[in-house]
Amino acid sequence: MRARRSLYLFTFPALLVIGLFFIHPIILTFDMSLTNYKGIGEANDIGWRNYERIVARDRYLNEIWLTLWYTVIVVSALTVTGLFFAAMLHRLPLIRNFSRAALYTPAMMSFVVVGYIWQFLYSPLNGGINVALRDLGLGAWEQNWLGDPSIALYSVAFAQIWMFTGFTCAIFLAGFAGIPEEINEAGRLEGASSWQRFRYLELPLLGPSITVSVMLTTIGTLKTFELPFILTKGGPDGATRLLSIDIIDNLFGQYKFGFASALSIVMLVIVLAVAFLQNKVLRDREQA
Amino acid sequence: MSLTETQTTARAHTGPDWDFITRRAKSILVHGIVLALVGIMLLPLIYMVMMSFKTSTEIAQDPLGLPDSLYWGNYMAALSSMGYVRSVLNSLGITLSVIVVVVFAGAMAAYPLARLQNRTSRVIVMIMALGLATPNFVTITPIYVIFRDIGLLDSYLGIVLAFAALKLPLAVFFYTSFIAAIPMELEEAARLDNCNNWQIFWHVIRPLLAPVTATLSLFVMIMVWNDFIYPLLLLTDKDKLTVMIAVYKFVGNTGIDPTKLFPAAVLGSLPLLLMFAVFQRKIMAGATAGAVK
To answer: φ and ψ at A66, to 5 degrees?
Structure first.
Protein backbone atom coordinates (compact mmCIF):
# COMPACT_ATOMS: atom_id res chain seq x y z
CA MET A 1 0.00 0.00 0.00
CA ARG A 2 2.88 2.34 0.80
CA ALA A 3 4.33 1.62 -2.60
CA ARG A 4 1.03 2.58 -4.19
CA ARG A 5 0.78 5.85 -2.25
CA SER A 6 4.23 6.83 -3.42
CA LEU A 7 2.92 6.57 -6.97
CA TYR A 8 1.54 10.06 -6.45
CA LEU A 9 5.10 11.35 -6.58
CA PHE A 10 4.70 10.90 -10.33
CA THR A 11 2.19 13.74 -10.43
CA PHE A 12 4.71 16.13 -8.89
CA PRO A 13 6.21 17.71 -12.06
CA ALA A 14 2.79 18.26 -13.64
CA LEU A 15 1.28 19.63 -10.45
CA LEU A 16 4.28 21.90 -9.95
CA VAL A 17 3.91 23.48 -13.39
CA ILE A 18 0.11 23.68 -13.11
CA GLY A 19 0.33 24.99 -9.56
CA LEU A 20 2.81 27.73 -10.41
CA PHE A 21 1.39 28.84 -13.73
CA PHE A 22 -2.30 27.99 -13.50
CA ILE A 23 -3.64 27.65 -9.94
CA HIS A 24 -1.45 30.39 -8.54
CA PRO A 25 -2.47 32.83 -11.31
CA ILE A 26 -6.16 32.10 -10.70
CA ILE A 27 -5.73 32.89 -7.01
CA LEU A 28 -3.83 36.05 -7.95
CA THR A 29 -6.60 36.99 -10.37
CA PHE A 30 -9.07 36.77 -7.52
CA ASP A 31 -6.77 38.80 -5.25
CA MET A 32 -6.33 41.48 -7.88
CA SER A 33 -10.06 41.57 -8.53
CA LEU A 34 -10.51 43.02 -5.04
CA THR A 35 -8.13 45.90 -5.78
CA ASN A 36 -7.86 48.84 -8.12
CA TYR A 37 -4.41 47.71 -9.32
CA LYS A 38 -3.30 49.57 -12.44
CA GLY A 39 -0.40 47.33 -13.44
CA ILE A 40 2.18 49.42 -11.66
CA GLY A 41 2.31 51.18 -8.32
CA GLU A 42 0.11 50.49 -5.31
CA ALA A 43 -2.77 48.08 -5.33
CA ASN A 44 -5.43 49.43 -2.99
CA ASP A 45 -7.87 47.03 -1.46
CA ILE A 46 -11.33 48.14 -2.50
CA GLY A 47 -13.30 45.11 -1.38
CA TRP A 48 -16.06 43.94 -3.72
CA ARG A 49 -16.46 47.28 -5.46
CA ASN A 50 -15.35 45.93 -8.85
CA TYR A 51 -18.00 43.23 -8.67
CA GLU A 52 -20.63 45.73 -7.56
CA ARG A 53 -19.83 47.81 -10.61
CA ILE A 54 -20.18 44.79 -12.91
CA VAL A 55 -23.57 43.89 -11.48
CA ALA A 56 -24.82 47.49 -11.38
CA ARG A 57 -24.05 48.41 -14.98
CA ASP A 58 -26.10 47.28 -17.93
CA ARG A 59 -22.98 47.33 -20.06
CA TYR A 60 -21.49 44.25 -18.41
CA LEU A 61 -24.74 42.35 -18.07
CA ASN A 62 -25.31 42.96 -21.77
CA GLU A 63 -21.86 41.61 -22.55
CA ILE A 64 -22.61 38.48 -20.58
CA TRP A 65 -25.87 37.99 -22.46
CA LEU A 66 -24.13 38.68 -25.75
CA THR A 67 -21.46 36.09 -24.93
CA LEU A 68 -24.11 33.50 -24.08
CA TRP A 69 -26.23 34.34 -27.14
CA TYR A 70 -23.18 34.13 -29.40
CA THR A 71 -22.40 30.73 -27.90
CA VAL A 72 -25.96 29.49 -28.44
CA ILE A 73 -25.88 30.54 -32.12
CA VAL A 74 -22.48 29.04 -32.84
CA VAL A 75 -23.05 25.79 -30.95
CA SER A 76 -26.49 25.13 -32.46
CA ALA A 77 -25.29 25.91 -35.95
CA LEU A 78 -22.18 23.76 -35.52
CA THR A 79 -24.29 20.85 -34.30
CA VAL A 80 -26.59 21.11 -37.31
CA THR A 81 -23.88 21.61 -39.96
CA GLY A 82 -21.68 18.91 -38.43
CA LEU A 83 -24.59 16.46 -38.28
CA PHE A 84 -25.60 17.28 -41.84
CA PHE A 85 -22.18 16.67 -43.34
CA ALA A 86 -21.57 13.61 -41.16
CA ALA A 87 -24.92 12.04 -42.10
CA MET A 88 -24.25 12.64 -45.80
CA LEU A 89 -20.62 11.50 -45.74
CA HIS A 90 -21.49 8.44 -43.68
CA ARG A 91 -23.65 7.36 -46.63
CA LEU A 92 -20.98 8.22 -49.21
CA PRO A 93 -17.86 6.18 -48.36
CA LEU A 94 -16.27 7.05 -51.69
CA ILE A 95 -15.73 10.70 -50.78
CA ARG A 96 -15.84 10.39 -47.00
CA ASN A 97 -12.17 10.64 -46.06
CA PHE A 98 -11.35 13.35 -48.53
CA SER A 99 -14.31 15.50 -47.51
CA ARG A 100 -13.70 14.99 -43.81
CA ALA A 101 -10.13 16.21 -44.14
CA ALA A 102 -11.14 19.09 -46.42
CA LEU A 103 -13.83 20.29 -44.00
CA TYR A 104 -11.38 19.99 -41.10
CA THR A 105 -8.71 22.15 -42.75
CA PRO A 106 -10.02 25.52 -41.45
CA ALA A 107 -9.86 24.18 -37.87
CA MET A 108 -6.13 23.64 -38.38
CA MET A 109 -5.62 27.32 -39.03
CA SER A 110 -5.04 30.11 -36.60
CA PHE A 111 -7.83 32.45 -35.50
CA VAL A 112 -5.58 35.26 -36.66
CA VAL A 113 -5.42 33.97 -40.23
CA VAL A 114 -9.10 33.02 -40.32
CA GLY A 115 -9.95 36.46 -38.93
CA TYR A 116 -7.94 38.21 -41.63
CA ILE A 117 -9.42 36.16 -44.46
CA TRP A 118 -12.95 36.89 -43.33
CA GLN A 119 -12.21 40.51 -42.65
CA PHE A 120 -11.36 40.86 -46.30
CA LEU A 121 -14.22 38.68 -47.49
CA TYR A 122 -16.61 40.88 -45.52
CA SER A 123 -15.14 44.23 -46.49
CA PRO A 124 -17.88 46.46 -47.94
CA LEU A 125 -16.44 47.55 -51.31
CA ASN A 126 -14.02 45.05 -52.75
CA GLY A 127 -14.71 42.23 -50.31
CA GLY A 128 -15.23 38.77 -51.79
CA ILE A 129 -18.79 38.31 -50.58
CA ASN A 130 -20.21 41.60 -51.84
CA VAL A 131 -18.41 41.27 -55.17
CA ALA A 132 -19.73 37.72 -55.57
CA LEU A 133 -23.26 38.91 -54.81
CA ARG A 134 -22.91 41.69 -57.39
CA ASP A 135 -21.57 39.25 -60.00
CA LEU A 136 -24.48 36.91 -59.34
CA GLY A 137 -26.93 39.77 -59.87
CA LEU A 138 -27.84 39.83 -56.20
CA GLY A 139 -26.46 43.30 -55.61
CA ALA A 140 -29.48 44.11 -53.45
CA TRP A 141 -28.21 41.65 -50.85
CA GLU A 142 -24.93 43.47 -50.37
CA GLN A 143 -24.29 44.36 -46.76
CA ASN A 144 -21.78 46.13 -44.65
CA TRP A 145 -21.26 42.79 -42.95
CA LEU A 146 -19.03 43.90 -40.10
CA GLY A 147 -20.11 47.56 -39.99
CA ASP A 148 -23.83 47.13 -39.49
CA PRO A 149 -24.60 46.65 -35.78
CA SER A 150 -27.62 44.49 -36.50
CA ILE A 151 -25.66 41.81 -38.39
CA ALA A 152 -22.04 42.14 -37.22
CA LEU A 153 -22.41 39.52 -34.48
CA TYR A 154 -23.83 37.01 -36.95
CA SER A 155 -21.06 37.71 -39.43
CA VAL A 156 -18.46 36.95 -36.77
CA ALA A 157 -20.40 33.85 -35.72
CA PHE A 158 -20.54 32.69 -39.34
CA ALA A 159 -16.76 32.78 -39.63
CA GLN A 160 -16.47 30.71 -36.47
CA ILE A 161 -19.08 28.22 -37.70
CA TRP A 162 -17.20 27.91 -40.97
CA MET A 163 -14.00 27.26 -39.05
CA PHE A 164 -15.28 24.44 -36.84
CA THR A 165 -17.88 22.62 -38.93
CA GLY A 166 -15.21 20.07 -39.84
CA PHE A 167 -14.50 19.53 -36.16
CA THR A 168 -18.09 18.64 -35.23
CA CYS A 169 -18.45 16.68 -38.46
CA ALA A 170 -15.43 14.53 -37.48
CA ILE A 171 -16.91 13.87 -34.03
CA PHE A 172 -20.27 12.85 -35.51
CA LEU A 173 -18.65 10.67 -38.17
CA ALA A 174 -16.92 8.75 -35.37
CA GLY A 175 -20.35 8.44 -33.73
CA PHE A 176 -21.91 7.13 -36.95
CA ALA A 177 -19.09 4.61 -37.32
CA GLY A 178 -20.01 3.24 -33.90
CA ILE A 179 -23.61 2.46 -34.90
CA PRO A 180 -23.99 -1.25 -35.66
CA GLU A 181 -24.68 -1.85 -39.36
CA GLU A 182 -27.51 -4.31 -38.51
CA ILE A 183 -29.66 -1.49 -37.19
CA ASN A 184 -29.61 0.36 -40.49
CA GLU A 185 -29.98 -2.92 -42.35
CA ALA A 186 -33.15 -3.64 -40.41
CA GLY A 187 -34.44 -0.16 -41.14
CA ARG A 188 -33.77 -0.58 -44.84
CA LEU A 189 -35.62 -3.91 -44.94
CA GLU A 190 -38.58 -2.22 -43.30
CA GLY A 191 -38.52 0.25 -46.17
CA ALA A 192 -37.39 3.25 -44.13
CA SER A 193 -36.14 6.15 -46.24
CA SER A 194 -32.71 7.59 -45.75
CA TRP A 195 -34.20 10.50 -43.79
CA GLN A 196 -36.33 8.19 -41.63
CA ARG A 197 -33.30 6.05 -40.82
CA PHE A 198 -31.41 9.19 -39.80
CA ARG A 199 -34.25 10.62 -37.76
CA TYR A 200 -35.49 7.52 -35.93
CA LEU A 201 -32.52 5.14 -35.87
CA GLU A 202 -29.26 7.05 -36.07
CA LEU A 203 -30.05 10.32 -34.30
CA PRO A 204 -31.15 8.68 -31.03
CA LEU A 205 -27.99 6.55 -31.05
CA LEU A 206 -25.78 9.59 -31.59
CA GLY A 207 -26.61 10.90 -28.10
CA PRO A 208 -23.09 10.49 -26.68
CA SER A 209 -21.49 12.13 -29.73
CA ILE A 210 -23.89 15.06 -29.50
CA THR A 211 -23.06 15.44 -25.81
CA VAL A 212 -19.32 15.50 -26.50
CA SER A 213 -19.66 17.84 -29.46
CA VAL A 214 -21.97 20.29 -27.69
CA MET A 215 -19.80 20.39 -24.58
CA LEU A 216 -16.54 20.89 -26.46
CA THR A 217 -17.93 23.55 -28.77
CA THR A 218 -19.69 25.36 -25.91
CA ILE A 219 -16.54 25.71 -23.84
CA GLY A 220 -14.54 26.64 -26.92
CA THR A 221 -17.07 29.26 -28.03
CA LEU A 222 -17.53 30.83 -24.60
CA LYS A 223 -13.78 31.42 -24.64
CA THR A 224 -13.97 33.17 -28.03
CA PHE A 225 -11.76 36.16 -28.15
CA GLU A 226 -9.53 36.20 -31.21
CA LEU A 227 -12.14 36.35 -34.00
CA PRO A 228 -14.08 39.39 -32.75
CA PHE A 229 -10.76 40.93 -31.70
CA ILE A 230 -9.43 40.75 -35.26
CA LEU A 231 -12.73 41.28 -37.10
CA THR A 232 -14.49 44.03 -35.18
CA LYS A 233 -12.63 44.89 -31.95
CA GLY A 234 -16.05 44.70 -30.28
CA GLY A 235 -17.69 47.22 -32.62
CA PRO A 236 -19.73 48.54 -34.29
CA ASP A 237 -21.46 50.25 -31.42
CA GLY A 238 -20.70 47.40 -29.02
CA ALA A 239 -22.57 44.91 -31.22
CA THR A 240 -19.81 42.30 -30.89
CA ARG A 241 -18.37 43.33 -27.53
CA LEU A 242 -18.19 39.95 -25.86
CA LEU A 243 -17.07 39.75 -22.26
CA SER A 244 -13.66 38.49 -23.40
CA ILE A 245 -13.12 41.53 -25.61
CA ASP A 246 -13.85 43.86 -22.70
CA ILE A 247 -11.45 41.93 -20.46
CA ILE A 248 -8.58 42.38 -22.89
CA ASP A 249 -9.53 46.00 -23.49
CA ASN A 250 -9.53 46.78 -19.76
CA LEU A 251 -6.26 44.94 -19.42
CA PHE A 252 -4.05 46.13 -22.20
CA GLY A 253 -6.03 49.09 -23.46
CA GLN A 254 -6.70 50.81 -20.16
CA TYR A 255 -4.39 48.94 -17.73
CA LYS A 256 -7.24 48.41 -15.29
CA PHE A 257 -5.78 45.14 -14.04
CA GLY A 258 -8.03 45.04 -10.98
CA PHE A 259 -11.26 45.49 -12.86
CA ALA A 260 -10.19 43.15 -15.69
CA SER A 261 -9.48 40.51 -13.04
CA ALA A 262 -12.99 40.86 -11.63
CA LEU A 263 -14.42 40.43 -15.13
CA SER A 264 -12.16 37.38 -15.60
CA ILE A 265 -13.46 35.77 -12.42
CA VAL A 266 -17.04 36.37 -13.60
CA MET A 267 -16.09 34.80 -16.93
CA LEU A 268 -14.54 31.79 -15.20
CA VAL A 269 -17.63 31.29 -13.02
CA ILE A 270 -19.88 31.44 -16.11
CA VAL A 271 -17.77 28.93 -18.05
CA LEU A 272 -17.66 26.51 -15.12
CA ALA A 273 -21.38 26.90 -14.39
CA VAL A 274 -22.32 26.29 -18.02
CA ALA A 275 -19.96 23.32 -18.28
CA PHE A 276 -21.34 21.82 -15.09
CA LEU A 277 -25.01 22.33 -16.00
CA GLN A 278 -24.50 21.03 -19.50
CA ASN A 279 -22.67 17.97 -18.31
CA LYS A 280 -25.52 17.22 -15.90
CA VAL A 281 -28.39 17.86 -18.31
CA LEU A 282 -26.84 16.09 -21.30
CA ARG A 283 -25.69 13.04 -19.31
CA ASP A 284 -29.09 12.71 -17.65
CA ARG A 285 -30.84 12.96 -21.00
CA GLU A 286 -28.53 10.29 -22.38
CA GLN A 287 -29.42 7.95 -19.56
CA ALA A 288 -33.16 8.60 -19.87
CA MET B 1 -23.41 0.28 -50.17
CA SER B 2 -25.78 0.88 -53.07
CA LEU B 3 -23.23 -0.32 -55.63
CA THR B 4 -23.41 -4.04 -54.82
CA GLU B 5 -27.14 -3.80 -54.36
CA THR B 6 -27.75 -2.19 -57.72
CA GLN B 7 -25.43 -4.58 -59.51
CA THR B 8 -27.34 -7.63 -58.34
CA THR B 9 -30.66 -6.15 -59.34
CA ALA B 10 -29.21 -5.15 -62.69
CA ARG B 11 -28.28 -8.72 -63.56
CA ALA B 12 -31.84 -9.95 -63.04
CA HIS B 13 -33.17 -7.85 -65.92
CA THR B 14 -32.49 -7.73 -69.61
CA GLY B 15 -32.53 -4.62 -71.76
CA PRO B 16 -32.08 -1.12 -70.37
CA ASP B 17 -32.65 -1.28 -66.63
CA TRP B 18 -34.28 2.05 -65.80
CA ASP B 19 -34.35 1.32 -62.12
CA PHE B 20 -30.59 0.82 -62.18
CA ILE B 21 -30.03 3.91 -64.28
CA THR B 22 -32.12 6.21 -62.08
CA ARG B 23 -30.46 4.91 -58.96
CA ARG B 24 -27.06 5.36 -60.53
CA ALA B 25 -27.96 8.88 -61.61
CA LYS B 26 -29.29 9.68 -58.17
CA SER B 27 -26.10 8.43 -56.55
CA ILE B 28 -23.93 10.51 -58.87
CA LEU B 29 -26.12 13.53 -58.21
CA VAL B 30 -25.88 13.14 -54.43
CA HIS B 31 -22.11 12.71 -54.60
CA GLY B 32 -21.93 15.79 -56.79
CA ILE B 33 -24.05 17.92 -54.46
CA VAL B 34 -22.11 16.96 -51.34
CA LEU B 35 -18.77 17.52 -53.09
CA ALA B 36 -20.02 20.91 -54.26
CA LEU B 37 -20.97 21.83 -50.69
CA VAL B 38 -17.54 20.75 -49.46
CA GLY B 39 -16.09 22.86 -52.28
CA ILE B 40 -18.08 25.89 -51.13
CA MET B 41 -16.69 25.41 -47.64
CA LEU B 42 -13.20 25.51 -49.14
CA LEU B 43 -13.85 28.73 -51.09
CA PRO B 44 -12.38 31.06 -48.45
CA LEU B 45 -9.13 29.07 -48.57
CA ILE B 46 -9.04 29.06 -52.35
CA TYR B 47 -9.75 32.78 -52.23
CA MET B 48 -6.84 33.25 -49.83
CA VAL B 49 -4.37 31.45 -52.10
CA MET B 50 -5.70 33.15 -55.24
CA MET B 51 -5.52 36.63 -53.76
CA SER B 52 -1.96 36.09 -52.57
CA PHE B 53 -0.80 35.84 -56.21
CA LYS B 54 -2.50 39.00 -57.47
CA THR B 55 -1.01 42.44 -57.89
CA SER B 56 -2.80 45.33 -56.22
CA THR B 57 -4.09 46.56 -59.60
CA GLU B 58 -5.57 43.15 -60.35
CA ILE B 59 -7.25 43.10 -56.93
CA ALA B 60 -8.73 46.55 -57.49
CA GLN B 61 -9.96 45.86 -61.02
CA ASP B 62 -11.16 42.29 -60.70
CA PRO B 63 -11.50 41.34 -57.03
CA LEU B 64 -12.77 37.81 -57.64
CA GLY B 65 -11.01 36.85 -60.87
CA LEU B 66 -8.13 34.45 -61.24
CA PRO B 67 -4.71 36.11 -61.33
CA ASP B 68 -3.32 36.62 -64.86
CA SER B 69 -0.10 34.96 -63.84
CA LEU B 70 1.44 33.70 -60.64
CA TYR B 71 2.80 36.93 -59.24
CA TRP B 72 5.39 36.13 -56.55
CA GLY B 73 6.10 39.75 -55.66
CA ASN B 74 3.73 39.75 -52.66
CA TYR B 75 5.52 36.75 -51.22
CA MET B 76 8.93 38.30 -51.81
CA ALA B 77 7.84 41.45 -50.01
CA ALA B 78 6.30 39.50 -47.12
CA LEU B 79 9.30 37.21 -46.74
CA SER B 80 11.75 40.09 -46.69
CA SER B 81 9.96 42.18 -44.08
CA MET B 82 7.95 39.94 -41.76
CA GLY B 83 10.91 38.02 -40.34
CA TYR B 84 9.29 34.79 -41.48
CA VAL B 85 12.13 32.29 -41.20
CA ARG B 86 13.13 33.52 -37.78
CA SER B 87 9.54 33.37 -36.55
CA VAL B 88 9.06 29.85 -37.90
CA LEU B 89 12.17 28.73 -36.01
CA ASN B 90 10.88 30.44 -32.85
CA SER B 91 7.47 28.80 -33.15
CA LEU B 92 9.08 25.44 -33.84
CA GLY B 93 11.42 25.71 -30.86
CA ILE B 94 8.67 26.85 -28.48
CA THR B 95 6.24 24.23 -29.76
CA LEU B 96 8.71 21.34 -29.48
CA SER B 97 9.77 22.41 -25.97
CA VAL B 98 6.15 22.57 -24.85
CA ILE B 99 5.56 19.10 -26.32
CA VAL B 100 8.54 17.65 -24.45
CA VAL B 101 7.40 19.10 -21.11
CA VAL B 102 3.76 18.18 -21.64
CA VAL B 103 4.51 14.63 -22.80
CA PHE B 104 6.86 13.81 -19.91
CA ALA B 105 4.99 15.49 -17.08
CA GLY B 106 1.61 14.47 -18.53
CA ALA B 107 2.43 10.78 -18.95
CA MET B 108 3.98 10.59 -15.49
CA ALA B 109 1.02 12.26 -13.80
CA ALA B 110 -1.44 10.09 -15.69
CA TYR B 111 0.09 6.83 -14.46
CA PRO B 112 -1.07 7.04 -10.82
CA LEU B 113 -4.38 8.63 -11.89
CA ALA B 114 -5.09 5.66 -14.15
CA ARG B 115 -4.18 3.12 -11.48
CA LEU B 116 -5.50 4.55 -8.22
CA GLN B 117 -9.06 5.67 -7.59
CA ASN B 118 -9.41 7.55 -4.35
CA ARG B 119 -9.96 11.04 -3.04
CA THR B 120 -6.49 12.27 -3.99
CA SER B 121 -6.83 11.15 -7.59
CA ARG B 122 -10.31 12.65 -7.82
CA VAL B 123 -9.04 16.02 -6.59
CA ILE B 124 -6.21 15.97 -9.15
CA VAL B 125 -8.63 15.06 -11.93
CA MET B 126 -10.85 17.97 -10.84
CA ILE B 127 -7.91 20.36 -11.07
CA MET B 128 -7.21 19.08 -14.59
CA ALA B 129 -10.86 19.53 -15.60
CA LEU B 130 -10.71 23.10 -14.28
CA GLY B 131 -7.62 23.61 -16.41
CA LEU B 132 -9.42 22.39 -19.53
CA ALA B 133 -12.36 24.73 -19.02
CA THR B 134 -10.52 27.91 -18.06
CA PRO B 135 -10.15 30.50 -20.82
CA ASN B 136 -6.52 31.55 -21.16
CA PHE B 137 -7.30 35.24 -20.85
CA VAL B 138 -8.40 34.57 -17.26
CA THR B 139 -4.85 33.63 -16.26
CA ILE B 140 -2.96 35.90 -18.63
CA THR B 141 -3.06 39.00 -16.37
CA PRO B 142 -1.44 37.38 -13.33
CA ILE B 143 0.99 35.41 -15.52
CA TYR B 144 2.03 38.70 -17.08
CA VAL B 145 2.51 40.25 -13.63
CA ILE B 146 4.37 37.20 -12.25
CA PHE B 147 6.64 37.01 -15.28
CA ARG B 148 7.37 40.71 -15.09
CA ASP B 149 8.29 40.43 -11.43
CA ILE B 150 10.57 37.39 -11.77
CA GLY B 151 12.07 38.36 -15.11
CA LEU B 152 10.48 35.69 -17.30
CA LEU B 153 8.80 38.21 -19.56
CA ASP B 154 10.20 38.05 -23.06
CA SER B 155 11.96 34.74 -22.42
CA TYR B 156 11.51 31.41 -24.18
CA LEU B 157 11.51 29.62 -20.81
CA GLY B 158 8.59 31.71 -19.58
CA ILE B 159 6.33 31.17 -22.54
CA VAL B 160 7.13 27.44 -22.66
CA LEU B 161 6.15 27.05 -19.00
CA ALA B 162 2.98 29.11 -19.47
CA PHE B 163 1.94 26.99 -22.46
CA ALA B 164 2.87 23.79 -20.63
CA ALA B 165 0.57 24.69 -17.73
CA LEU B 166 -2.19 25.44 -20.25
CA LYS B 167 -1.84 22.16 -22.18
CA LEU B 168 -0.89 19.72 -19.40
CA PRO B 169 -4.50 19.00 -18.36
CA LEU B 170 -5.27 17.81 -21.89
CA ALA B 171 -2.17 15.60 -21.86
CA VAL B 172 -3.11 14.10 -18.52
CA PHE B 173 -6.60 13.23 -19.80
CA PHE B 174 -5.20 11.72 -22.99
CA TYR B 175 -2.71 9.54 -21.13
CA THR B 176 -4.99 8.58 -18.24
CA SER B 177 -7.61 6.99 -20.46
CA PHE B 178 -4.88 5.31 -22.51
CA ILE B 179 -2.94 3.89 -19.54
CA ALA B 180 -6.15 2.72 -17.87
CA ALA B 181 -6.65 0.41 -20.85
CA ILE B 182 -3.23 -1.25 -20.41
CA PRO B 183 -3.69 -4.61 -18.63
CA MET B 184 -2.41 -4.75 -15.04
CA GLU B 185 -0.80 -8.17 -15.62
CA LEU B 186 2.10 -6.57 -17.45
CA GLU B 187 2.96 -4.50 -14.41
CA GLU B 188 2.43 -7.30 -11.92
CA ALA B 189 4.99 -9.47 -13.67
CA ALA B 190 7.51 -6.64 -13.40
CA ARG B 191 6.61 -6.09 -9.75
CA LEU B 192 7.36 -9.73 -8.98
CA ASP B 193 10.81 -9.10 -10.47
CA ASN B 194 11.24 -6.41 -7.80
CA CYS B 195 11.00 -3.47 -10.15
CA ASN B 196 10.15 -0.22 -8.41
CA ASN B 197 7.43 2.16 -9.60
CA TRP B 198 9.77 4.21 -11.72
CA GLN B 199 11.25 1.16 -13.43
CA ILE B 200 7.76 -0.14 -14.18
CA PHE B 201 6.69 3.21 -15.58
CA TRP B 202 9.83 3.61 -17.65
CA HIS B 203 10.27 0.06 -18.95
CA VAL B 204 6.72 -1.28 -19.06
CA ILE B 205 4.32 1.66 -19.50
CA ARG B 206 6.35 4.25 -21.39
CA PRO B 207 7.16 2.07 -24.44
CA LEU B 208 3.42 1.47 -24.95
CA LEU B 209 2.59 5.16 -25.08
CA ALA B 210 4.00 5.92 -28.53
CA PRO B 211 0.71 6.11 -30.47
CA VAL B 212 -1.05 8.38 -27.99
CA THR B 213 2.09 10.51 -27.70
CA ALA B 214 2.10 11.04 -31.45
CA THR B 215 -1.54 12.13 -31.48
CA LEU B 216 -1.12 14.35 -28.45
CA SER B 217 2.01 16.00 -29.86
CA LEU B 218 0.22 16.87 -33.09
CA PHE B 219 -2.64 18.33 -31.10
CA VAL B 220 -0.44 20.41 -28.83
CA MET B 221 1.53 21.53 -31.85
CA ILE B 222 -1.61 22.85 -33.58
CA MET B 223 -2.75 24.71 -30.49
CA VAL B 224 0.60 26.23 -29.57
CA TRP B 225 1.48 27.13 -33.14
CA ASN B 226 -1.82 28.92 -33.63
CA ASP B 227 -2.07 30.55 -30.23
CA PHE B 228 -2.26 34.28 -30.29
CA ILE B 229 -2.72 35.85 -26.89
CA TYR B 230 0.17 34.28 -24.94
CA PRO B 231 2.95 35.20 -27.36
CA LEU B 232 1.31 38.56 -28.06
CA LEU B 233 1.52 39.57 -24.43
CA LEU B 234 4.48 37.60 -23.13
CA LEU B 235 6.99 38.21 -25.94
CA THR B 236 7.93 41.64 -27.24
CA ASP B 237 11.49 41.13 -28.46
CA LYS B 238 11.38 41.25 -32.27
CA ASP B 239 13.71 38.26 -32.50
CA LYS B 240 11.49 36.05 -30.36
CA LEU B 241 8.14 36.50 -32.10
CA THR B 242 6.14 33.44 -33.11
CA VAL B 243 4.71 32.99 -36.61
CA MET B 244 1.21 34.17 -35.77
CA ILE B 245 2.49 37.31 -34.06
CA ALA B 246 4.75 37.98 -37.03
CA VAL B 247 1.67 37.69 -39.27
CA TYR B 248 -0.34 39.92 -36.94
CA LYS B 249 2.35 42.59 -36.72
CA PHE B 250 3.02 42.49 -40.45
CA VAL B 251 -0.63 42.83 -41.45
CA GLY B 252 -1.90 44.80 -38.48
CA ASN B 253 0.62 47.58 -38.81
CA THR B 254 -0.53 48.45 -42.30
CA GLY B 255 -4.31 48.31 -42.10
CA ILE B 256 -5.77 45.71 -44.39
CA ASP B 257 -3.62 45.71 -47.46
CA PRO B 258 -4.54 42.54 -49.38
CA THR B 259 -1.12 42.25 -51.00
CA LYS B 260 0.30 41.83 -47.51
CA LEU B 261 -2.58 40.10 -45.78
CA PHE B 262 -2.95 37.10 -48.07
CA PRO B 263 0.66 36.04 -48.56
CA ALA B 264 1.20 36.43 -44.81
CA ALA B 265 -1.88 34.30 -44.13
CA VAL B 266 -0.65 31.60 -46.51
CA LEU B 267 2.88 31.66 -45.10
CA GLY B 268 1.58 31.55 -41.53
CA SER B 269 -0.63 28.52 -42.19
CA LEU B 270 1.61 26.65 -44.60
CA PRO B 271 3.78 24.69 -42.12
CA LEU B 272 0.75 23.31 -40.28
CA LEU B 273 -1.23 22.62 -43.44
CA LEU B 274 1.71 20.66 -44.85
CA MET B 275 1.87 18.72 -41.63
CA PHE B 276 -1.87 18.11 -41.81
CA ALA B 277 -1.50 16.75 -45.33
CA VAL B 278 1.09 14.25 -44.07
CA PHE B 279 -0.44 13.27 -40.73
CA GLN B 280 -4.11 13.68 -41.71
CA ARG B 281 -5.19 10.27 -40.39
CA LYS B 282 -3.50 10.67 -37.01
CA ILE B 283 -4.93 14.14 -36.51
CA MET B 284 -8.45 13.06 -37.41
CA ALA B 285 -8.13 10.11 -35.01
CA GLY B 286 -7.04 12.49 -32.25
CA ALA B 287 -9.84 14.92 -32.99
CA THR B 288 -12.39 12.22 -32.31
CA ALA B 289 -10.60 10.50 -29.43
CA GLY B 290 -12.81 12.35 -26.96
CA ALA B 291 -15.96 11.21 -28.67
CA VAL B 292 -15.09 7.54 -28.51
CA LYS B 293 -14.38 7.65 -24.78
So the answer is: -60, -45
Say yes or no: B37 contacts chain A, CB-CB below 8 A. Answer: yes
Does residue B132 share a domain with residue B53? no
Q: Whole-model pTM? A: 0.86
CB contact under 8 A, B111 and A3: no
| ipTM, two decimals | 0.84
Across the interface, of B44, B101, B227, the residue whose CB is closest to A162 is: B44
Same domain as B103, residue B53: no
Residue B204 near chain A (CB below 8 Å): no
Q: How far is B81 from chain A (nearest CA, A)?
A: 18
Query: Residue B41: which of A225, A114, A173 has the closest Cα?
Result: A114
Buried/exposed code over A64-80 (b: 16+ C-beta within 10 A; e: otherwise): bebbbebbebbbebbbe
3-state secondary structure of A35: strand
A276 Cβ under 8 Å from any chain B Cβ? no
Could you give the CA distance from residue B93 to residue B86 in angstroms, rounded to a whole number?
11
Last residue of a domain, one of B15, B38, B71: B71
Q: Do B133 and B195 have their domain in common? A: yes
* pLDDT, tens only, B119-148: 888 888 888 888 888 888 788 888 988 898
- What's the rounded Cα separation, in Å, for the pair A176 and A184? 11
Is B7 contained in some domain?
no
Spatial separation of the C-alpha atoms in residues A229 and A222, rounded to whole Å: 14
